């Protein structure tokens, strides 16, 4: 389950990740749907019940043993519901390993990349470790900001404050950028990536680094797709099509 | 939109509103009757920002150098480094350091209010009268101080000896009053040259701040001969003429408090060859501050503790000896002063006796105003108003016993006078707690790893040098010591979540205040809960682990409920649509995997 922001950001990442997981889990099912976190954040209790319920039904329909999620909010929503066994994509990666050809691919890069942890999974050490493991496997040099792992700070996107208080959200984003020891940043949430860009930083999604070209000091990050609703919805549609094609 | 908040939201809000440490002042400034921001200026000294430190001190008190030397510093008694380690921050000495190093007229706030056309008379130029004068000038009233002596400062000038507080410091700091336009009538004794009635007729209000200047002497057999005086008269004469007519060579001071020690140490400096201090209290029960006792011992004052003066013996009309009886206990079971004497006798020889056994407030109202213990006038404790409309009392005449308290009562009287002159109620909406000493409820645990770093002491002249002159004994801090001492301060405040959260800073000084206001009003602007990132960073740092995000999330739910299932925030219409789409067939898919 990739969540919402990732498919809206990058159908390519969806496609490659689905293929990668399918190689390990031939019986892989894929669900592209929202977990309802934004509805929850707004405080719409009744709507949430109904919406989350529809997701639960989908999962049951697919007879899934274990959910692998690429979104930290989905992870928490599913875990809170206690209905299904749920793991994060980032914590299983070290277990199943990276494709051989990708290992050490960035060993020659001069980039030094700061790591930003997602705040909803502040306590999930296994996820933090997984992300660092991937970076190391790829051969990237990384640094940690002062507030990292269990002390990480919000990117500014949380709580749906962007539409409510855009000026404040911008300041929170800029503050998080100030925390970062280097200009180039890696995140593992597409919404965090968008925030980092809005805060004036240069951020890549971990999957960009995994599946995309090697990033060097001179590289510029992909554009902020999520800032354009039209492009984002088109992408989300494309991602759906990709999934449909890959899981047959 | 009338929002019904759920029990849960109200419950946690109440917890935060009542338990949040953010509004608790540090121990030092809560205890200070003038609420000098000790934590603030100590931090500035520690950062080497001395001009700012002086500005910060002067926000509350106009006598930084004076208080830095003589303030009885109740703040140090409650300092966290005292309660934890018995090593309080040298708050007063750091104030003196900042003042000595950086105080200058350019830093003074000389602004006064628009003239109100009202005139106030203040009796006495001690710290209480002077503080009242400053505050009333700032409020725009015309102020005239009546002072019976030819010098200003009250006990700061004629009580506290020069070796503790040099005249130059006091003179410089008192120029502030003249700069604000305070007028003086020097050498005019109210009750003699001019009556209280005269003042009430020619002024719109009167503040009595004439202190306690009548030295008390117990009835002692034989004490009608030469060579006998009291502390107030003795110290005043010394302060004003640098001499004492009564002083001989062998001196006995009666009393065990700080005033007695001032007398003893002054007598040595004024030429006495032998000084004995006779006290009812045992050595370990002396009320005088340990630091002062130590200074006196070093200078050679002999302590005769646990003795009661029974009789003075005279020869040729001058005192020649004292008969003493041993004192078993000073107070009775009820804690009342009631010395119990034993049967041991002794005699000591002397040619001078100074009674340092208390001061009394003189009645200058011609019997118009009721007095109580020690002559203090009967006043309303909250407002310092008396039975006579427009007449207020401040300072020791109203019950203070140290300079900083006297100043706080001066400020309190000024607040009342200002209201009185504006025809306002004296009490309505007034926060009396903040006008005097109170206790801080601050209880954030010490940061892990806080060590007991020992207090740094100031340099002092050697005892030999000290007793030769009235020059100042305490030389104060040098730069290095001041920095080290200031940096020991634990900065007792909780702003942890406020350092972490930008959002909270946009709306409040701390969550306690925010949720307190919410509970008071029964509602909150929707933008507040809807600005929370739900990131829990506040909870992470909060010593109470308050969950602000939970409260805000609860509020959002309640607001949605009151708003027919929709968020009250305009911009959230887009999310509604967004969410509908995110669950729509068009953008969702489920694909069941197959072997
Ligand atoms: C020897 C001694 C040492 C002390 N040491 C300390 C210390 O180290 N630290 C500390 O905090 N406190 C100390 N105190 C206490 C402190 O000095 C007093 O609490 C404080 O000065 C009281 O201020 P006040 O303005 O009420 O009165 P005062 O300072 O007493 O001033 C009253 C003024 O009114 C004038 N006056 C009196 N009668 C009349 C009249 N009829 N008409 C016109 N003017 C009149 C007096 O001349 C005097 O100038 C000490 C007191 C004494 C006596
Ligand atoms: S440690 Fe500092 S802030 Fe705390 S009570 Fe002492 S002087 Fe005040
Ligand atoms: S959870 Fe809300 S209140 Fe707490 S730090 Fe984050 S934004 Fe601020
Ligand atoms: S961290 Fe914030 S909420 Fe917690 S006690 Fe301190 S000021 Fe109050």
Assign the CATH class of the largest domain in chain B.
Alpha Beta
Which small molecules are bound? flavin-adenine dinucleotide, iron/sulfur cluster
Indicate the percent of residues in helices of chain A: 40-55%
Strand content of chain A: 5-15%
Global structural class of chain B: alpha/beta
- CATH top level of the largest domain in chain A is Alpha Beta
What is the name of the CATH architecture of the largest domain in chain B? 3-Layer(bba) Sandwich
CATH topology annotation of the largest domain in chain A: Rossmann fold
Shape annotation of chain A: globular
The proportion of strand residues of chain B reads 15-25%
What is the general shape of chain B?
A: elongated
The whole-angstrom Rg of chain B is 31 Å
Radius of gyration of chain A: 17 Å
Question: What ranges of chain B have pLDDT less than 50 throughout 5 or more consecutive residues?
Answer: none
Query: How many individual β-strands of chain B?
Result: 18
Largest sheet properties of chain B: 5 strands, parallel
Mean of residue pLDDT values of chain A: 95
What average pLDDT do the residues of chain B reach? Answer: 95
The tally of domains of chain A stands at 2
CATH topology of the largest domain in chain B: FAD/NAD(P)-binding domain
